Amino acid sequence: MQATLFLAINVMDRYLSLRVTTKDKLQLVAVASLLVASKFEDQWAPLIRDLVYVGSRSFTAAEVKSMERTVLNTLQFEISVPTIYPFLMRAAKAANFENTHSHLPSYIAEVALHSYALLKYPPSIIAASVVAVSLRMTKNTWSSACASTTGCQEAALIPCMQEINALLKEIPAEVKTVRNKYTGSTKGNVSTIRPVDF
Question: Taking the chain, what is the end-to-end CA distance rounded to the nearest angstrom?
Answer without folding.
Answer: 33
